[in-house]
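Thought: the user wants the 3D structure for the chain below. I'll pass the sequence to the structure tool as-is, report back what it returns, then summarize two notable features.
Action: structure_tool
Action Input:
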Amino acid sequence: MKILLFGGNGYIGSEFVNQLQSISNVKLIRLPSRRPDGSGYSFKELDGLIKKAKPFILINCAAYVGGNSIINCEDHKDQTIQSNVIFPQMLGEICKERNITFGHVSSGCVFNGYPSGGYEEDDVRNMTFNTKCSFYTGTKAMAEDCLNNVERKYIWRIRLPFDEINHPRNYLAKLIQFDRLVVSANSISNRKELVTACIECIMKSVPFGIYHVTNPGAIRTDEIVSMIRNILKIDKDFQYFESIEAFDKLSTIPRSNTILNMEKLGRAGIVMTPVHESVEKSLKKWQWVTA
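Observation:
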């Protein structure tokens, strides 16, 4: 099976590379998501690259996330739109024309709030440009809309990725570094498990569509902090905001705090470790070296 991957140098994409390279019947082809000078591809250029590669599956992990903070997307809107909307839209159109299965990594942060049972894949998103959201989140929602007419696709919504490696994009590492935290319950995604789940969607030929790819359950910020104290033996006086509302008043962009429903992925036969267990395992294997 020939798989073409864009965004293989990123936090999520690099894990796709690690796992896909270990599968014997997979031939992985990696391509940059931009020209060498940093500019975006034209549709004709991109189509030519994909035509030459002749993949059965195309996976897009490329995205502009503002470095280590999506706040920076607010000041780089052109680059954010190009990477997060125009690029995946072109990929989707090419995949549709060439009958290539398309896998696109999206974000569960298109939701905010706590409905009973958690948000399901088909629920109306409430963090889009039509409502109130950060520019980054708005572009992720817009990309999903641009792919509506692509039938052979997987859209994988992930949230707050983490694992055992001290990395600037690791949610656990961010909590350790932040001076002040907001106590909120969230769905979060173990980086290695989420990539495994996405690959299983392909290998098991599960029905096309949108899938929430987070560890089952939800975990509060203060629960993670307690684990960090007990497991990593960090003697830090973690400070908290009085409430989510108090944090929102100081935040320069709207933030998502939410729980996603995982039942659809489970019905497809793909199982991830319960969130508390996954966080505990990651902390017990913690590596301080920066990846």
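Final Answer: Structure generated. The chain is about 35% helix and 15% strand. Residues 2-290 form a domain with the Rossmann fold fold (CATH 3.40.50.720).
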